[in-house]
Amino acid sequence: MIRLFKRVLRSEDSHESVVECRRCGANLESADVDHCPACGSSEVASYRL
Ligand SMILES: [Zn+2]
Question: Looking at the record's lineage, which domain of life comes first (predicted)?
Fold first, then answer.
């Protein structure tokens, strides 16, 4: 479900988005990551600005 969400975001356009780990709250630089490098959680959320 998360991958589908990101795919939708990516297909929209090139607006900046914030990618955040839902577990530890770390901000990730890229929406291409599948999991948080800080805690290893796969629950990564993307938000459009
Ligand atoms: Zn994390």
Answer: Archaea
State if pTM tops 0.90. no
The position carrying tokens 């839902």 is: 22
Q: So what's the pLDDT on residue 30?
A: 78
pLDDT, tens only, 20-47: 999 999 999 876 788 999 999 999 998 8
Distance from residue 20's CA to the centre of ligand 1 (Å):
8
CA distance 8 to 15: 13
Question: 36 CA distance to ligand 1 centroid (A)?
Answer: 5
Q: How many domains does the chain have?
A: 1
Domain that holds residue 16: 2-48
